[in-house]
Amino acid sequence: MLNRSILFPAPLLLIFALCPFSAKSHAEEAVSTSFTTTTFDNLSQLEALHQEATELVLINDFTGAVKVYSEIILLEPDDETAYTEMGNTYMILGNFERAESCFLNALDINPENEDAQLGLQKIRDPDSPTSTPPVTGSDPFDDSPYR
Question: Which domain holds residue 99?
Answer without folding.
Answer: 40-124
